[in-house]
Specification:
- It comes from Streptomyces mesophilus.
- By secondary structure, the protein is of the alpha/beta class.
- The chain contains 6 helices and 11 strands.
- It has a single domain, classed as Rossmann fold (3-Layer(aba) Sandwich), CATH 3.40.50.880.
- The strands form 3 sheets. The chain has a 7-stranded mixed sheet with strand order 5-2-1-6-7-11-10, with helices on both faces. The chain has a two-stranded antiparallel sheet with strand order 3-4.
- It is globular and about 50 Å long.
Length: 188
């Protein structure tokens, strides 16, 4: 049986930030599961920039089924965690079941990949204090308030935590995460 990786997300997650790691990690031979607040079809979104707008815009993206609900997750069954961005982390950080799941990965020093607004979840459990991270640039103050040192870079590796700013950084983010995975949790 191959090693399992968990992606935690919900409605309004950025389509590319869920589906790119899902496909890339499966390509490497990992068994990838998507968990959400409930087992249902999730509605992802597309964030992009339009001329004249001060920030990104949001449009409907792909739909995708969640494999399991947060309440069904046994973190011990997974070798790594992926936390996509989009708007989903803004409300998911309030889910006590999800906070317990994420905390388990940090407490056991398992690889965690986070991108864009995903670090709002790791900040919510106090796991960024003293770490180097990147995130969507508008979150720089949030990362500093969580005790992290923010770096505006394509990918930042701090031990088993690999973070990226947003979907344009996917290639570098996944290269760095796969380096960590091959050392800590290789496909068997």
């Amino acid at each position: 049986m191959s090693a399992k990786i968990l992606i935690v997300t919900g409605d309004a997650a950025e389509s590319l930030e869920v589906l790119y790691p899902y496909q890339r990690l499966r390509e490497e031979g990992y068994d990838v599961h998507i968990a959400a607040p409930a087992r249902k079809k999730l509605q992802f979104v597309v964030h992009d920039f339009e001329p004249g707008f001060d920030t990104y815009t949001e449009k409907p993206g792909y739909t995708w089924p969640a494999d399991l609900a947060f309440s069904e997750v046994d973190p011990g069954q997974y070798v790594a965690l992926v936390i996509p961005g989009g708007r989903a982390p803004e409300y998911l950080r309030n889910d006590p079941e999800l906070r317990k799941i994420i905390k388990t990965f940090f407490d056991t020093d398992k690889p965690v990949a986070q991108i864009c607004h995903g670090p709002l979840l790791t900040a919510a459990i106090g796991s960024l204090s003293g770490r180097r991270v990147t995130a969507y640039p508008a979150l720089e103050l949030d990362m500093q308030a969580a005790g992290a040192t923010f770096q505006d870079a394509e990918a930042v590796v701090d031990g088993t935590l690999v973070s990226a700013r947003a979907w344009p950084d996917h290639s570098r983010w996944m290269r760095e995460f796969l380096t960590v995975l091959r050392a800590k949790a290789p496909v068997t």
